[in-house]
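Teaching assistant's notes for section 4

Start the section by putting this record on the projector. Ask students to predict, before seeing the second block, whether Putative membrane protein will look compact or extended. Collect guesses on the board.
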Amino acid sequence: MTTARPALALSALLAVACVTHFAYPKPYDRIVPTTLPGSARTWTYVSGVAELAVAAAVATPRTRRLGGLAAAALFAAVFPANVKMAVDAWNRSRTERLATVARLPLQVPLVVWALRVSRSAA
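Reveal the predicted structure now:
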């Protein structure tokens, strides 16, 4: 496997996430922490743009090292939204509660993946 494959796969994941922020913003709006200033929709769109910028940086060999670090930071930065989603699901079905709680530790492999992409960049 070439070192570009994991980077391109990470870039694709981020690009798809970006598209969903614009195509289906309501679920993202609901998980924006209320402590952030401004409207939830603005944060949804800002995070979508950030994902696209990071996807481009990861996809480009010249900026891949920095892009991988930015991806790791982005995955860490959205963790509070995932926590909010789990807290908000507390009064929902057992399946929804379990799904949102199970999602929390998935941020760790995403951060690790992004850091590996950064380290493997030339």
